[in-house]
């Protein structure tokens, strides 16, 4: 699977992204570099801090991503992109937020593993008066 985008793909993505941006607030310095950072982040499955320095400060990228996410910019961006495709309605995705894990998958320790025998418990002094 190729994760490279052609120049035509970038041109369309940038045009749609800029149309999806809110009218107020800081517009950002370089939209393509920002989107390339998000693309790199998603494809390589890394933490924000592990972003290469060529994208700029990781914290600035995260702050912009967080602000745009909370404002609904990416929802609008993906809706606009989907409207350009005739087959977008055929694609379905899910992420781990909808997958439920068993209670024991949380890594909780459980109960006390060592149990005292009944005879030994009867001989020991009471814990309280």
UniProtKB/TrEMBL annotation:
Q: Which residues form the Insertion element IS402-like domain?
A: 5-76
Q: Output the superkingdom of the source species.
A: Bacteria
> What organism is this sequence from?
Martelella mangrovi
Annotated spans, Disordered? 110-129
> Which residues fall in a compositionally biased region of kind Low complexity?
119-129
Extract the Pfam families matched here. Answer: DUF4096
**Name of the featured protein:** Transposase
């Amino acid at each position: 699977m190729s994760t490279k985008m052609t120049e035509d793909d970038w041109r369309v993505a940038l045009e749609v992204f800029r149309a999806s941006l809110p009218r107020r607030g800081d517009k950002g310095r370089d939209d393509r570099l920002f989107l390339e950072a998000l693309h790199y982040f998603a494809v390589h499955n890394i933490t924000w801090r592990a972003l290469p320095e060529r994208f700029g400060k990781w914290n600035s990228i995260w702050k912009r991503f967080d602000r745009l996410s909370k404002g609904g910019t990416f929802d609008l961006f993906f809706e606009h992109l989907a409207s350009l495709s005739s087959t977008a309605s055929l694609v379905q995705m899910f992420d781990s937020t909808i997958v439920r894990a068993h209670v024991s998958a949380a890594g909780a320790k459980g109960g006390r593993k060592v149990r005292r025998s009944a005879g030994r418990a009867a001989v020991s002094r009471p814990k309280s008066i």
